[in-house]
Specification:
This protein is of the alpha+beta class and 414 residues long. The chain is 17% helix and 37% strand. Strand 2 and strand 3 form a beta hairpin.
């Protein structure tokens, strides 16, 4: 374990967020946050100031935001909370789901116990197992001093035509029955508090960053760019034939991790090839690279673009566009790929959210789409790009993935 930073001041800020979703109305309740501090007597105390805002207004204690009906074909509802660090210590931000209740059936009631039911498990369920999709996302896990900020996002959607009318009808009927039952309880007992159809409780935390083994390595945060020498396996200072621009694509690279996964900038000059000749073209390209590499896979790209829970969508002909949502396990990723292939569709994503995937020319993944096509990435316009099936006989770039040794990266003095 690396040496821990001295704790000048440590404050845990916990916000309990209640997301109440009703088929009649939708309410977000953001409960207040409190903190306790412990100070080292050996050094000066640093200021700790984390500010939460929504639409420019400071969020404090109780905030209620009400929306109108939730129904198939509704516009996607999004809420964003900005978390800004105005203090003197770098902050680590995280969230976890505490519980979720979908109507009144016990099998759709999830309480996180960290053993049998985990936060990622519940997050996956509410994002994919129902016709309405509830997704949560945190842009960055680290906020530095000097006003640095990150964004916590909630999105709720319900496609008009998901090609599963039975599921839409089933949950519409369940919701109606639940609401009738709640009204009957109120009629029988005027003091009864009617429950919302759906309720999700989350915990949002901000605390002083401490560099320990399981902590996010701040040197290799997701999407961070760095210049990398493909002959020396080290950082470099200016772009050349061997010094290329790369981006970190690990979602959460830990301090204890010995390697970091880098994607070379697709705008770099690379070998082009048909997919049929992918292997030979790839081997020829990396034969002069004195570093560890592997092929780029569709899994890499889908894991990246699914982080955007608003603009990354599954596009299928004659069906409603559908937000992909949180993908945090291999089964869900496989299901998503099977879905896009079976409908002969593609994934559309924001080039603003993922500028390091933007390329005027297509570039391959080493993953087949079907017998005639393979997955590739290309831009649609200045705002959007796509992950789609490109004819194997067409020509696209070959972009390898680099597995870089952090020890070499950290020790070269740059």
């Amino acid at each position: 374990m690396k040496e821990r930073h001295k704790t000048y001041i440590k404050i845990n800020i916990v916000s309990l967020i209640l997301v109440a979703v009703s088929f009649i109305s939708l309410t977000f309740a953001w409960f207040g946050y409190t903190g306790l501090s412990s100070l080292s007597t050996e050094i000066d105390v640093k200021a700790w100031h984390i500010e939460l805002t929504k639409n420019g207004d400071i969020v404090s204690n109780n905030i209620s935001i009400s929306f109108s009906e939730l129904y198939p074909g509704m516009d996607t509802i999004t809420e964003e909370i900005t978390i800004k660090n105005l203090g003197d210590s770098t902050a680590s931000v995280s969230y976890e789901i505490v519980s979720a209740r979908i109507l009144g059936d016990s099998k759709d009631n999830y309480i996180v116990d960290y053993t049998n039911v985990t936060s990622p498990y519940v997050e996956d369920k509410i994002a994919h197992e129902y016709p309405f999709k509830i997704n949560v996302s945190l842009k960055d896990n680290i906020v530095y001093t000097g006003g640095d900020e990150t964004t916590f996002v909630v999105s709720i959607s319900w496609p008009m035509d998901s090609d599963n009318d039975e599921l839409d009808t089933l949950w519409g009927s369940k919701a109606n029955a639940f609401n009738i039952a709640e009204k009957e309880k109120l009629n029988a007992d005027p003091s009864y508090q009617i429950r919302s159809s759906i309720q999700v409780s989350l915990k949002l935390s901000a605390e002083q960053y401490i560099e320990e083994d399981d902590a996010l390595d701040v040197h290799y945060q997701f999407a961070k760019s760095l210049l990398y020498d493909i002959e020396e396996g080290k950082k470099c200072s200016s772009i050349s034939s061997t010094c290329i621009k790369t981006y970190v694509i690990d979602e959460y690279n830990k301090v204890s991790d010995t390697t970091v996964t880098l994607l070379p900038d697709p705008l770099n000059t690379y070998t082009t090839s048909t997919f049929t000749d992918y292997s030979s073209a790839y081997n020829s390209l990396v034969s002069t690279w004195n570093v560890t590499t592997r092929e780029l896979l569709v899994n890499d790209i889908l894991n990246i673009i699914s982080r955007d829970i608003i603009d990354t969508k599954l596009i299928r002909e004659n069906l409603s566009d559908s937000i992909v949502g949180t993908i945090n396990n291999s089964d869900r990723l496989t299901n998503e790929l099977n879905k896009v292939i079976s409908y002969n569709g593609y994934h559309k994503f924001s080039s603003v959210s993922f500028p390091f995937l933007k390329s005027a020319n297509c570039f391959w993944t080493n993953t087949e789409y079907n017998t005639e096509n393979a997955f590739a990435i290309s831009k649609i316009d200045d705002s959007y790009s796509k992950l789609y099936g490109e004819l194997k006989t067409n020509t696209c770039k070959i972009v390898p993935v680099i597995i870089a040794e952090k020890e070499k990266l950290n020790d070269n003095g740059l």
